[in-house]
Design a protein that fits this description.
Number of strands: 8
Number of helices: 3
CATH class: Mainly Beta
CATH superfamily: Hypothetical Protein Pfu-838710-001
CATH topology: Hypothetical Protein Pfu-838710-001
Helix content: 10-25%
Largest sheet: 8 strands, antiparallel, barrel
Number of domains: 1
Distance between the termini: 46 Å
Structural class: mainly beta
Length: 163
Amino acid sequence: MGPKREIFVGAEIERKFLVPQVPKNLDRYPHAVYLQGYIALGDDGTEVRLRRVGDTYFETVKTGDGLTRGEVEIPLSQRQFEALWDLTEGRRIEKARYRIDSGAVVIELDVYYGELKGLMTAEIEFDSVAASRSFEAPDWLGEEVTNDRRYKNKHLAAHGVPR
C-alpha cells in the first residue's frame, strides 16, 4: 500500500489569466501532465472532477463561482479512477502544468493539448482576498479571465476554446 493520502476540504482564492506566448526557458520549470474529466457540471458552478497526475488520482468537488470557491479533494486508487473515467466522456482535458516561482506567489501555467492545443492559461492561488487584490501580474500574463466562465476548465472540457 502506498503513502496515506488525506482528504482536502477548504476554499481556494484564485485568479486566472490568458497567456499569449510561451514564457522564455519554460523547460527549466517543474511540470507534470494532467488528465482530467468531469462527471457532473452544475449551472451553479458545482463540478465533480476526476484528475490523474502521474500515478496519483483524485476526485474533486468544487462549489461556487468566481474568485473564492469551496473545494473537497478525495484521493482515489487507480482502480477507482478507471471505474469512474468512462463517466467523463466528452468532458475531458489534457494539459501540462508548469510551476513558476514569481516572488511571493507560484504561477501555475497550463499548456493545453488535443482540441485545446494553442491555449495557455495561468492560475495563481492566494491565502486571502486582500493578497489576490494586491497581486501585480508580470508582463508575460495577458488578459485576466477570472470571472469569464468560458475559461474555466470545466467549460473548456465540455465546449472547447472560446471563439
